[in-house]
Write a structure and sequence with these properties.
This protein is α+β, with helices and mostly antiparallel strands. The protein has 4 domains: 2-112, Classic Zinc Finger (Double Stranded RNA Binding Domain); 116-170, Double Stranded RNA Binding Domain; 172-221, 2-Layer Sandwich (Double Stranded RNA Binding Domain); 227-257, Classic Zinc Finger (Double Stranded RNA Binding Domain, 2-Layer Sandwich). Helix content is 39%, strand content 16%. It has helices at 18-23, 48-54, 56-59, 74-85, 102-113, 130-141, 158-169, 186-192, 194-197, 214-225, 242-253; strands at residues 2-5, 12-15, 36-37, 44-45, 62-63, 70-71, 90-91, 98-99, 118-119, 126-127, 146-147, 154-155, 174-175, 182-183, 202-203, 210-211, 230-231, 238-239.
Length: 257
Amino acid sequence: MLIMSCAYTGRLIEVKTEADSNDITEHAHSDKSGPYLCTVCNKRYRTKHQLTRHRVVHTGKYKCTECGKYFHHNAALKIHSRVHSGEKPFECNVCCKLFTTAGSLVVHSRIHSGEKPYKCRMCDKAFSECSQLVKHMRVHTGDKPYKCHTCDKTFSWCGSLSSHMRVHTGEKPYKCDLCAKAFSRSGSLKKHMVVHTGERPYKCHVCDKPFSQSSDLVKHLIVHTGDKPYKCHVCNKTFSWSVSLKNHIRIHVGDKP
């Protein structure tokens, strides 16, 4: 990272070098299931490099008087101090939004310019932030670094793990303002809202019949395709819908509907 004087304001700014951009892919996020343990604060990391970068907060020469974190360079400490002071010296010349670091302003400016400099070498998708590319690459690699400490299920994204944890905690933070029903996922709330709005955004391309849920459209399409994907394991009879198979199974087990 280079510390330079801004040509417009005269203020000192930090400029990321190419090496800094490469380091973003190894950005040190704490991971409860990581194999590398910090013996000072007991945080865990997925790679040794992440742990090494983290240790700076304990071993650096320059100490933050507010939170006790350490930094190897005084310039880095000054930048960090803005977290406590609330100072945001970098302003977007399009929407006037303020930022703590020059790097944050650079990333934000891509919202206005549409620039996407981080390109996937596997599928040519492009992203405005390096961290977005890192997350996207898991689609190709199958990497699932986020592990549930309760049931050991793994996930590719931190958000997916957070949503999954509500299965164990029973938390339902997404509440309907109209009927007070609550949901563990924002997507579930969005689906529920069509009960109140009457919206039917999913339309059959064959007969134009509209549906409120995509799953209902999928079931409806069987009417046109004649597909019968549900097969009885006893007599091999096939059915278009799972409920039809379920009712049929009762013939074999003697269960009354």
